[in-house]
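Internal tracking record. Fields below are filled automatically when a chain is submitted to the structure queue. Please do not edit lines marked as system-generated. If the sequence contains nonstandard residues, flag them in the REMARKS field before resubmitting.
Queue: standard
Priority: normal
Entity type: single polypeptide chain
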Amino acid sequence: MELFVMKVLIRWVRALLLVGYPTWNISGSWTVDKEKFFSALRPTLSSLVLKASYSLTADKGPSSVTNSTIIIKSTTPWRHQSSLQETGYRITHPENSELTYEKKHELNLGLTAGLLKDRINFSFDWYHRNNFDLIGPITTMGLGGSTVKYGNVASMQSDGVEFSVSTTNIKTKNFSWTTDFVYAHSRNTVSKLENRQRMIDLISGTGFWGRGLPCTSIVLYSILQV
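SYSTEM-GENERATED OUTPUT FOLLOWS
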């Protein structure tokens, strides 16, 4: 195993109906147990690796997203006589040129370690994510024949931790007993939201998106009788 490892990945994502966008990932790791000073920690601590990564990724978003360019399909207009029928074209979705990918910046810091000749292994990861240009419906003035379009209207912050422990309790030629424990915790907050909001959405079963609230929050009404 190498002492230091660093990787850089750059790519361009492009969907048929969305504006292309560059993405990248930078990651590195330090195999501490390959250092000379680590021999003083053996055999109690048998392995230790520190790792970090920072990336920008993009996703095309929900399947209900239509397009960034105009979509025209063929049709057969109604005529009062069948002999007069002819093929026509209609605009099914007007151009939405500013629609682009949902994007995410993510910082991840972690470590993996082994104790007692790797009979006990544990890993810890902390991450912070900044999701932006999230896609949702927004009310427009109706230009192009549509009053509701999809746009990049929201941002969300999230962070969390993941921790796991794996132990080899018994290991013989014909029998082995291992145990695993996994813990994860995350939280998120909607930091920007420009789409339409209705009071009925507050109590819908699918949850509600509101600025300053966790995504898909469930809200209860408090009604005062007068």
